[in-house]
Every structure is written in C-alpha cells, then in structure tokens.
Amino acid sequence: MKELLQVSASPHIRSKRDINKAMRLVIIALIPTLIFSTYLFGIRALIIVLLSIITSVVCEAVMERMLGRNISITDGSAILTGILLAFNLPPGVPFWIPIVGSAFAIIFAKQLFGGLGYNFINPALAGRAFLMASWPWAMTKEWLAPVNGTLSGIDGITSATPLNLLKNAANYGDPHFVIKHLNEFATIKNLFIGKVGGCIGETSALLLLIGGIFLIIIGITDYRIVVGYLGSFILLALVLPTRGSLLFHLFSGGLFLGVFFMATDWVTSPITKKGRWIFGIGCGVLTMVIRVWGGYPEGVSYSILLMNVFTPLIDRLTRERVFGEIRKGKK
Amino acid sequence: MAKGFSGGVHPHEEKYTEKIAIEAMPLPKRVYIPFSQHTGKPALPLVKKGDEVKVGTKIGEADGFISSSVHSSISGTVVDIKKYPHPVVGESLCCIIESNNQDEWEQGVKVKQNYESLSRKELIEIIKEAGIVGLGGAAFPTYVKLSPPEGKKIDTIIINGCECEPMLTADHRLILEYPIGIIEGAGLFQRVLDAPRLIFAIENNKLDAADVLKKEGVEVVILKTKYPQGAEKQLIKAVLNREVPRGGLPMDVGCVVQNVGTAYAAFQAAKYRKPLIDRVVTVTGDGIKEPKNLLVRIGTRAIDVINHCGGYTNPPKKIIFGGPMMGIAQFTDEVPVIKGTSGIIVRARAQTFPEGPCVRCASCIDVCPMGLMPTEIYKFVKNRRFKTAKEFGALDCIECGCCAYSCPARIPLVHYIKYGKAEIRRTEKK
Ligand code: SF4
Ligand code: SF4
Question: CB of B148 within 8 A of CB of B181?
Fold first, then answer.
C-alpha cells in the first residue's frame, strides 16, 4: 500500500510570517530602546524589564495550564506584553511593581478574556492603569535622572519630567520662564534623542521612531493608525492652547511608544481599514484633550485604552467596500 | 507603468520551468476521459464498451446550454465506462480507452481549413463542437462566453496571459512558442463578438512573452506581477479600470476575458477542425525528477505524466492539480489530466500549518482582492451563522487564497469560506 497523500484545502503555500515571527520582529524593533534605556538609567532599568518579562511568561504558562489551554508562551506575545509594561514604568519603581503589573496584565487583561486574540484591551496598558490606580506614588514619583542629563531636560530643574513641568509650571518657579525653557531647541533636542527623564521606554523619540517605521515598512504595523493618530495630534497641537510647542508635544512622554507600539496592537485595534483611521484619529484627539484639559500630564495610555474599549463598536459600524459594490448615491 | 488592483499577495514565483520548451508527451497506453470536465452539466455518453474510436471522435455530447462535448484523445477501443477518480469532483463517470498505438485521427481533422470566410454563427458552432472550455482553470464552456445575450455589447476582449499562479509556466511557454496561433484565435473571438478592441494582458515577470506578442503588432498591456492578477474581475479592473458589479459577469462591463490557451485551442479548432484533445501542463515541484512543460492528451493519468518526467524523487507527500494557490490536492496519482488542468505539482515534503487563534491582524482583509473580511466570514461560518456570512459577502469570494496565504495564525480561511458557500447555496435551494 502506497503512502497516503496529504489532502488539504487550497492554498498549498503560506507566507513565511506566522504569529511567532511577527512578535519576534516587534520585539526586535524595541531592543534599541531597551539598550538605550539601560544606558540612561543603569542596570536597574534592565532588571525591571526582565522581571516584567519573566512574570508575564510564567503567568501565561500557569494560567494556560489551569484553564486547560495550549501553552503558547513560545509565540512571544507574553514577552512583548512584559516589555511594553516595563517600558511604561518609571525607572525608579521598586522591583515588585513590574511583577505585580505584568501578573495583572496577563492574568486579568489577557487570559481571563480568553487568551491571545480575545482580549479587548491592551494587556500592558491595562497593567499600567492598574498600577496607577493602586500605587500612584510609585508610578508618578519614582523618576530617575538619566546619565549626563536632568530629569526635566532643563538645567536646574531636577524634580519633574518635562510633561509634568508643563502641566504644573507654576510649582517650579515663574511659569513663563519654565515654559519658555521647555520649548527651547536644547530641550527639544534632549527630548528627541532621549536625554530626559521619563518611563523606561519612552525617552528616546528617535529610537522609537526608527523601530516604528521599520515595523510599518515590513508590513506588521498598519500605517493608518499611525498617520491618523499623529495627524490629529499634530493638528490639535497647532490649534489648541497647549502651552508647549508642537515638537515638544511630539517628542515628550510616551507618544511614540504609544503610537507605534501600543495603539497599533493587532488584537485591540479595529480590523476594518476605515475603522483603523477612526481609531487612530480618536487616540490622537483624546491624547491631546487629556494633555490640555485632563488631570494627567500624559494622555497616551488612557486614550488608547479608551479607544480599545470602542474597538468592537467601530468594527461593527464600519465595513469594507466589496469589489463591484455600487456606492450609494452613485450609479 | 504597470497597472494593478487593490489587495493581493506576492508569493515566491518558483517558475522553474519557464525556460523549458514544451514537449509533446508520448501517447499513453490508456486514457481516462471524464464526461464532466467543465462548469455545467456533464456530457452525455455517445459510445459504449467495445466501440472503436479515433483521435477526435466525439464520445460525449453537450447536455444543455452550459455544457461541453468531449472527444477521444487517442485511437483505440473503449474498454469501459464507469466511475473513476476525478481531479475536481472526486469521482465521476469516465470513458476508459485502450490505445491501439496508431494515433489515427478522425476524418477531416488536421486538414487545413479555410476559416477566414466563416460566419460568426459557424465559428461559434465550431468552437462548441470542438468542446473548448476555458483552459485557465475554471473550464467554463467558451462558446457560452462568446454568445452574450441580445443587447449586451462587448467592446473589449482581454486575452489573459498573466499566469499569476506561482510555479505554472504553461501559458508563458505557449505564448513564446505559438504566438501566431494565439493571436489568430484571439482574432476569431474578436470577430465573433464584433469587439473593436483586443488586448493581451501580461504580467511584468514575462516581458519576453510581451515582446513576442508586441512584435506581431497586437496591443499588449503589462501588469504588475501580483497574485491574483489573472482573476477575471481583477484583470478587468487593472486593464480597463472597470469594475464588474457584484454578482455580475465581465460582459456587464462590456468585456470578455479568455485565456491564451483557450485562444490557441480555438485557433486549432477553426483551422484544423481539431477538437480539444490535448493541453499544455506544467509538471513541477520538488517531488518531480525532471520538471517539464508537457503537451498532454486529455485523460492521461497523473502517474503516467509523472513517470514521463523521470518519476518521483521521493515518495510523494502531496499532489496538486493546478497552481499552489488555488489547485486541488489529489488523493491518488491515478487521476486523469482534464481540460482545466494547468499544472501538476508534486511535493516530496508534507507541510502542515497548525491553526492558531485569530489575532485580528487584519492582513486577510488587507490582501482580499474582493474587499471582503475573511476573518469575520470564517467566524460566522464556524458558528454556523451562514446568513450573516452571506451578508458579509461570502458568495463574492473568488477563492483566490490570498487571505489564508497571509494569515499569521495559519487559519485555513478558504476552507471555511468554501464550506460556508456550499451551506448557503444548499439552504437557498430548498
Ligand atoms: S476571502 Fe476569498 S476572495 Fe478574499 S482573499 Fe480570501 S479567498 Fe480570496
Ligand atoms: S489574517 Fe488570520 S489572524 Fe489576521 S485577522 Fe485574518 S484571520 Fe485573523
């Protein structure tokens, strides 16, 4: 008897990119930032990231075991969640913070919703929000100044991050003077290359930009969300009374980290093309609104979380245009 | 500039045989000719066990409007008419003919005819009698496409030389080696339909073929190499920027698309009264010792073709009839080549793609040339919500395979969608 022939449905070839590979590429895009942050804030930053990764992977394995799912830790998604969560923490936080945060992210925001593909909010951002709500002191005070730089990016002011400074300028001396300083070229340059304080992964706008563009070019990240987000953000930065200059807003805080690596998360962003535009624009508007009128100096993570919640609705309300479909009003 | 359509993918071309000239395969000992090789009703058998037949003897008569006649591809004796494996439908009624090694042709066949003076009606009749169907794969009876209903004016005929499926090179070789026949055949279509414009569409990975045609003075449009460039609706969009309406046919936008092989077959039918009894098949894949482009008589079993190509390199793991994107995996190597068989691909290695959860990456949506949302349709089908699947356009799917090809979760989306389509059609019939 001859060996049986394999009979399966077409297509008989697949692209080389599976989930593991895609996740690996996203992780690679984040590595320059990780290396740079380790240089800026010392080995401490690296330890926080590693703790976060290890906790994520262990929690994923344990939860999947308990829930009777296939163990999927090799797909890289838990590692990615770990990195992103750590990147959203101040470098001075105690070491139990990344552990608690990533455990929350994986257990509550991901596995209890059904695991990869079923979570509707970004686990890393959910973990961060949980930490913010539970231990606000750790999340807002434990900043570290980078090597060869100051926390604020301005000489002489050492107790606040740039966005904090902008929000509460009056607390740090003459507000006009402070804001003028913030918008100076030297400060902007520090922001862009990353010689300022901030969360572990948000300091160097330049490296995040390179990683993000790399992901767009190789087709992992969708440009619609990025363009929608940045476009609406820039527009509002120009028309709203934001006090900071456009470049200041673009390069400060976790904007690029959020735009390129969190808003574009596959699972939690819309699948329709129109939906992705709406999602991106929504994020941009909300971020600016929070920065200008909200209680937090930074608005990126909350706006993305909020848009995550709207994603199912956006998907339901938008459709692709089927080939040959006659548009309404047109013949 | 090369033109295109939206969506699509770029699989590795792997066109290993594009430099290998077409070779006529020696006659097989036996042929297995199914009565159904086309879209529509099977042909009605005209012969019985024991009958003597020649090459070109009609053995099956078209049954109804959308059907096609079938001819013997060798001379010899009908040894049986019975159910036999079929490459598309699994099993069907088949005429088995034992060769007498004479290769005697039916009277009148292969004699040069003066076809320039034939009327449109006569031409259509000849193409119908010759059992010509679309050789690109769908095997739709050609004469039906050439008989648009009253009032449908065809202004453009596109001759499809895209051959966008990876690995296949049969059409490419045919253009390089028989350009005159193809152009003559295309001219016949043009005459029948009274169409002012005739365009040859070629992808930009076959510029040599485009040059050959251009030299003959016909209009050639160069298209981007992108799968599925050769799909009718995408082709019309790319060439003419016209969109066939949902559920409509190319003729609704004044267009008819014919494959290059079909044009060549029509030419042979008009000039030599030769029915469709052979076709060019690309035999390739890592499981084949000597990949080739072969002119094969219809009804030749895959195993005979493979043996002519030096046999298997290793025990075969998968045999595909057609291209790697849309072809059909066979359960036996005894299935015969039929009119729509453009390629035989043998894989020496088994490949499995374990299905993961949908990660909502939307690549399936971005690559779907029909603007569908495969991930949504697949979820509806999985939950047996066929009505919703239909609302989401399941029936518009052309089964090109782009979605499943690009899905990082390796979900066999086409498999689910095909199943959904079958279920939708079944419930609608009731
Ligand atoms: S849904 Fe159908 S038409 Fe769209 S990519 Fe998949 S197979 Fe092709
Ligand atoms: S390509 Fe696959 S994983 Fe991505 S959205 Fe479509 S079905 Fe889901």
Answer: no
Domain borders along chain A are 19-141, 162-196+204-316
Mutate to test the interface with B, among A2, A320, A325, A330 (most CBs of B within 10 A): A320
B336-to-B140, B276, B304 alpha-carbon distances in Å: 19, 15, 9
Q: Which residue has the tokens 């596959």?
A: A266
- B404: CA distance to ligand 2 center in Å? 8
The SS3 of residue B60 is strand
Query: Considering only CA atoms, which residue is closest to atom 8 of ligand 2?
Result: B358
Separation of alpha carbons B164 and B343, rounded Å: 13
Partner residues linked to B133 by β-bridges: B141
DSSP string, A125-147: HHHHHHHHHH-HHHHHH---PPT
3-state DSSP call for residue A81? helix
For the record, the structure tokens of B73 come out as: 């591809």
Q: What is the pTM of this model?
A: 0.91
Q: Give pLDDT tens digits for A173-211.
A: 777 777 777 777 777 777 787 777 788 888 788 999 999
Say what the ipTM of the complex is.
0.89
Task: Let me know if A120 is exposed, middle or buried by CB neighbors in 10 A (0-12, 13-18, 19+).
Answer: middle
Tokens found for residue B197: 């414009």
> C-alpha angle A112/A135/A159, rounded to 5°?
135
